[in-house]
């Protein structure tokens, strides 16, 4: 009777000591880079939070409820800046979201490889245009040729023209990310739809679009964040560099949170006027940080809920 043979114990591939030392050093270097980025973020948050608290302690809270945002006069109505930011973001997304998504549908489902190879770089060139150039474009063309022709009473500097320019600036971002999400949808879904007799437009809107909804929503969220954070276009085209009254009228001059920070800090690191004006920059920055954080948290939660795996 043959005796059973025992298999040898598996051996661990350990490699040379020099190689293990190199791999350990590389891993520690990457860890250090990650920790540095976390430390920088934490330091920024601490600085902004500390200065914002100092600002709140230096003023009377009634100054936060004023007819407008005039920090050098001691009027710190942040609601004015939030309203301006919402107006610019809403108008910009009403332009960028549909145009960007429809452009993505065309590039993904209709364009030939040759046309896609031409249109995609053009979109990337549009994304590379400096925002200051679009700001002057809004001031010299969008406002006189579009806004004032439709609304003769609109001011020379207004939120609507700035919002249109921000929308143009955001289109390539949404189109590129949404197109990548749609092209990632398996071709088997398209072939199944065509096999059932569906037309191309039906396949694109009822099969591909729902399947790529998580990526499209992520593209729109990034577009919203881009519109909220835009500074130069609004600072140039919206006017109201010294301050603005609270108004929901997009055809009036106004400010967003980022443009107000840029206007207030221009010229000196210690802004002239009210003693608390300089600290108000950090308070507005904290409000902007919280606003953007909530937007990303809500958007990420929605994307995780609707995400589909194939």
Overview of the molecule:
With 310 residues, the protein is mainly alpha-helical. Helices cover 70% and strands 2% of the residues. It has two domains: 22-58; 63-306, MetI-like (MetI-like fold), CATH 1.10.3720.10. The protein is built from eleven helices and three strands, in the order αββααααααααβαα. Strands 2-1-3 form a three-stranded antiparallel beta sheet. The model has no long low-confidence stretch (mean pLDDT 84).
Order of helices and strands: HEEHHHHHHHHEHH
Q: Classify the helix fraction into a percent range.
A: over 70%
Averaged pLDDT, please? 84
Look at the helices and sheets and give the structural class. Answer: mainly alpha
Attribute tags:
single chain; 310 residues; mainly alpha; MetI-like fold; 2 domains; 3-stranded antiparallel sheet; globular
